[in-house]
Specification:
- The structure holds two protein chains of two kinds.
- By secondary structure, chain A is an all-alpha fold.
- Chain A has 13 helices and no strands.
- Chain A has one domain (2-31, 65-326): MetI-like fold (Orthogonal Bundle), CATH 1.10.3720.
- In chain A, helix 5 (94-127) runs antiparallel to helix 6 and helix 6 crosses helix 8 (183-221).
- Chain B has a single domain (17-309), classed as MetI-like (MetI-like fold).
- In chain B, helix 4 packs parallel to helix 14 (277-305).
- Chain B starts with 17 loop residues before the first helix and ends in a 7-residue tail after the last helix.
- The chains are: A mainly alpha, B mainly alpha.
- The interface between A and B is large, with 72 and 61 residues.
Chain lengths: 331, 312
């Protein structure tokens, strides 16, 4: 087990190092000069003014120092939690700007991931090899999982918010309210949360239901299931064993899908102008706020890595082989 | 998006060697058999039908309609009607939504084919090498796969794209292909691993053939159905990633795509606030139909290739 976690932690540390290095490399080695881009926004300048400003920017970002020194400085700042300042956030530190948006994204993501996984697996397992239920779950599942997140969001917003006016169309809470610890604000918060949550939940649900259905069918075809059946075991017992075995790839699948779900929440937030990381990212791109953009990248990577590690812990709990040191959950 | 990695097809584990030894003979007979079952698989035919209709729109649409998708010379804000040029209505700027849809569908298929194809190639190269060689090569490639696997590809694409002022569809497809291969590599590695120790591979080794020839001539043909299905899932996945990237506003500049249509509708047209459903419903529906048909085709193929799953 120690080996299992050691391996995982090593991979994640390496991944974070590589991802952060990419984050550092991109602005320095992409075609085009970021300083020139910043200067272009200042409008007309005299030649001396331009030279002075260019020097100022180069010194500000440390671009005139040797590369290894820049790289070292980047890591020192990163470890201290300093991600620079946000242009979009009027000079607020990037880390602070992201932290204020983080609760909204987590409030969407965590329930959406857990509930869609649970509901999808339950429904998928029920549907497998049961004619009428299967013929309903299968097409619905495929339609949902093939739906782009933002489009499902758009359709839900159009039908439930624009046409039927049941839910608010956009924002994290009403424009007439101030964030406070009152009942009215909480109700409003939930009303704004439901549609973006539903978009994420439904797409995920489709994928898990189909995955589980297919896994169960494979398990029911396997030798141990046939043996149990031949012994005259009740169908419910065979299914119970099939479900337990089918569970393992679904846990691994959860880790694989994390990046996709996070990406889904980014675009869903844009549809609903929901004030989380996704909307922040959208604004960072629009206002060419590169510090903010790169800070969000670091946050997203770190978040996905932490979530992956949590899934690994869950895997140890459901797969006993990893605990006794056999090759169960390597990969 | 990363292609339903958990629903990925399982290679039917053949019982012992006889199945493998008979491969050459079976593959000739098998082709006819697959066609026989393909033409009787409702899922496969249904998916194929949808894909053919969509391909027809993508190929013929721009020829029949002929309108420039970004020309603004039509009456703005028109809902769909039977008038020529207004089949799917117009945008707030007087652009033809049908022309945008047909051209966008082209870009979608292009990104899917190229991005998915590239991802399949990289996945195969890494998966075969790691699975066949084993040892240190496997350790290193496996580590690389795991690293790329956990980094969300969309996040990397966003950071790279935001620094590029001019972006093409080709660039988009290549970058999607370069980041979305890991789960395929992992799956192919596992399959190669299980084939590697079979007798017929040992026999091929004894005959003195080079490693890559054994991979191409012996291992790959034995899992060709699996490889094809992996490509289909990567195809669908690439389309969904491209749609997200376009929707964030980092899609191809100076072109048309289905994701870009939704981006324009929401960001510049306020289509949601004004209720111009014909502007944002068709592009998403097009993506959903394409990707959904690919996934259903995948299940259909699974049933065709794997006798255990056939209920025909």
């Amino acid at each position: 087990m120690r080996k299992y976690f050691g391996r995982k932690l090593f991979t994640y540390t390496l991944t974070f190092f590589i991802a952060a290095t990419i984050d550092w490399l991109i602005p320095r080695f992409m075609p085009g000069d970021p300083v020139a881009g910043l200067m272009a926004r200042q409008g007309a300048l005299s030649p001396e003014g331009a030279a002075a400003l260019s020097k100022y920017y180069n010194e500000l970002f440390g671009l005139n120092r040797p590369l290894w020194e820049q790289f070292f400085g980047f890591w020192t700042a990163l470890i201290q939690g300093d991600l620079g300042r946000s242009v979009f956030g009027h000079g607020r530190p990037v880390a602070e700007t992201i932290m204020s948006a983080l609760p909204y994204t987590l409030a969407l993501l965590i329930p959406a991931i857990l509930l869609s996984w649970w509901a999808g697996n339950t429904f998928g397992a029920m549907a497998a090899r049961r004619k009428w239920l299967d013929s309903a779950v299968l097409p619905v599942g495929y339609i949902l999982t093939a739906t782009p997140y933002m489009w499902l969001g758009l359709v839900l917003a159009f039908v439930l918010a624009f046409l039927l006016r049941i839910f608010p169309l956009s924002g994290g809470y009403g424009f007439n309210l101030e964030p406070s610890l009152t009942w009215a604000f909480f109700v409003d918060l939930v009303a704004h949360w439901i549609l973006p949550f539903l978009s994420l939940f439904l797409v995920g649900f489709g994928g898990w239901a189909i995955g589980m259905r297919n896994m169960i069918i494979y398990e029911l075809e396997s030798d141990y299931s046939r043996y149990l059946e031949a012994l005259g075991a009740p169908q419910s017992l065979v299914r119970k064993y099939a479900f337990r075995n089918a569970m393992l790839p679904q846990v691994t699948g959860l880790a694989l899908q994390l990046g996709v779900i996070v990406a889904g929440s980014l675009v869903t937030e844009i549809v609903f102008s929901y004030p989380g990381i996704g909307l922040l990212l959208f604004n960072a791109i629009k206002s060419e706020d590169y510090f903010l953009l790169q800070g969000i990248f670091i946050f997203v990577i770190a978040g996905v890595l932490i979530a992956n590690f949590l899934v690994d812990i869950a895997y140890v709990i459901v797969d006993p082989r990893t605990r006794v040191g056999m090759r169960g959950g390597t990969a | 998006m990363t292609g339903l990695a958990n629903t990925e097809p399982k290679l039917e584990s053949p019982v012992g060697a006889p199945a493998a030894v008979a491969t050459v003979a079976a593959s000739r007979k098998g082709r006819g058999e697959f066609l026989y079952f393909a033409l009787r698989s409702k899922k496969f035919l249904f998916a194929m039908g949808i894909l053919l209709v969509l391909i027809a729109i993508a190929v013929l649409g721009p020829m029949i309609d002929g309108t420039d998708p970004v020309a603004t010379d039509l009456l703005p804000m028109q809902p769909p009607s039977t008038d020529p040029g207004y089949w799917l209505g117009t945008t707030s700027f007087g652009e033809d939504v049908f022309a945008q849809f047909a051209n966008g569908l082209r870009a979608t298929f292009f990104v899917g084919l190229l991005g998915g194809g590239l991802a399949a190639l990289i996945g195969m190269a890494v998966g075969f090498t790691a699975g066949y060689r084993g040892g240190w090569t496997d350790e290193i490639l496996n580590m690389l796969t795991n690293v790329v696997l956990v980094i969300p590809s969309l996040a990397v694409l966003i950071v790279i794209s935001s620094y590029l002022k001019a972006r093409g569809v080709l660039f988009e497809a290549v970058f999607i292909g370069a980041t979305s291969w890991p789960w395929a590599a992992r799956a192919i590695r596992a399959q190669t691993f299980s084939l590697r120790s079979r007798d017929f591979i040992d026999l091929a080794k004894l005959s003195g053939r080079k490693g890559w020839r054994i991979i191409v001539e012996e291992i790959a043909p034995n899992m060709s159905s699996y490889l094809f299905m992996t490509f289909i899932l990567l195809f669908g996945g690439a389309i969904l990633i491209a749609a997200s990237l376009d929707f964030i506003g980092l899609g191809p500049t100076g072109g048309m795509s289905l994701g870009l249509m939704m981006f324009n509708a929401v960001t510049y047209g306020a289509a949601l606030l004004l209720g111009y459903w014909w502007w944002f419903i068709p592009p998403g529906l097009g993506i959903m139909a394409t990707v959904g048909a690919l996934y259903v085709m995948n299940v259909g193929l699974d049933e065709i290739f794997n006798p255990k799953l056939r209920d025909i």
